[in-house]
Amino acid sequence: MVTFSVILGIVHLVSLVGYEIVYNIPKPTLSLDPPYAAFLNSERVILTCRCQCSVTKHRYYRGHDLLLELERPEGKCETKVNLPVSLSSEGTYACQCFREGFVPVTASPASEPVTIHITDTLLKPTISTAPASGAVSNGQKVDITCKGDIRLPGVLFFFYKGYEGRNVQTRAVLDTEWSDTFTINSLNKSSAGKYCCRYQSAVPGHRMDSPLSKYVTITVKEQYLTDAIVRLCLCALVIIVMLIIIVEHFVTAMSLDGRHALDNTDYPSFRYRQNRVEMSLD
After folding, report:
1. Cα–Cα distance between 182 and 191 in angstroms, integer?
2. Cα atoms in the 13 Å half-sphere on the side-chain side of 97
3. Which of 26, 62, 81, 112 might form a disulfide with 47, Cβ 3.0–4.6 angstroms?
4. pTM above threshold 0.70
5. Would you state the pLDDT for residue 16?
6. How far, in Å, CA of 198 to CA of 183, rounded?
7. Is residue 227 part of a domain?
């Protein structure tokens, strides 16, 4: 982005030959209204360049070429360009600010570029699930959200189940919303499966349907697997406890056997040795 700004500044120095230029004005911002990801032929877009209010002139560029130059309106910090959309409009745009009438002339770097894409159809919507895995236990809730590059007002979202395209929800959204959510409040095996969506939006002269989104898969976690794992863990715990008890009993038994063996062998020998000692003393 820095390189882009520097190139624009160098390319257009020729229009200010003989003037010293100081680049000390903050970088302006350039925006698109409406902020579509892609535009259709015959639509319009407004480019808005906002600069420091003390500047006198705004320049708009398409690529590295000067598109037009506007004087800043009195009392305003921005200028607007109403651009009709056609195939020739596709490209990257930027703007730059100047303060003239003083020496030296001061200027800003070029704004961050914005891109206008041209298409013949609405963009494919994006679809997502919550939870993201799409796998929930039987009876739990799952949300499927569809988001489109919509034109306001009057947007419809459609949700479909299965490759046969059975419609499960059609709903109009508010003018401030760019997405809609289909909620399965209590998932079961019959509601599991593959889902997709599309949206319908007003374009100049008619309404247009978007392509279908990709498919997402909603699955039900088999509860018996969870139960089996719990039972297995409990069995393993019982076995471990039993092993510990058996080992403790075995160790105790071995200890008692050792003591009995010591009493049965060593004690008579001790008495015999003791008697011999007494006889020797006599």
Report:
1. 12
2. 25
3. 81
4. no
5. 46
6. 16
7. no
Residues 16 and 96 in one domain: yes
Q: What own/partner pairs with CB < 8 Å and gap ≥ 24 does 92-95 have?
A: 92/62, 92/63, 92/116, 93/30, 93/47, 93/60, 93/61, 93/62, 93/67, 94/4, 94/5, 94/8, 94/30, 94/60, 94/61, 95/28, 95/30, 95/47, 95/49, 95/51, 95/58, 95/59, 95/60, 95/61
Residue 189 CA from chain centroid, whole number: 28
Mean pLDDT confidence for 165-185: 89
- With cut-offs at 50, 70 and 90, classify the pLDDT of residue 264: low
Among residues 230, 165, 223, which one has the least CA distance to residue 197? 165
Distance in angstroms (rounded) separating the CA atoms of residues 253 and 194: 64
Give the residue from 123, 140, 128, 122 showing the smallest Cα distance to 215: 128
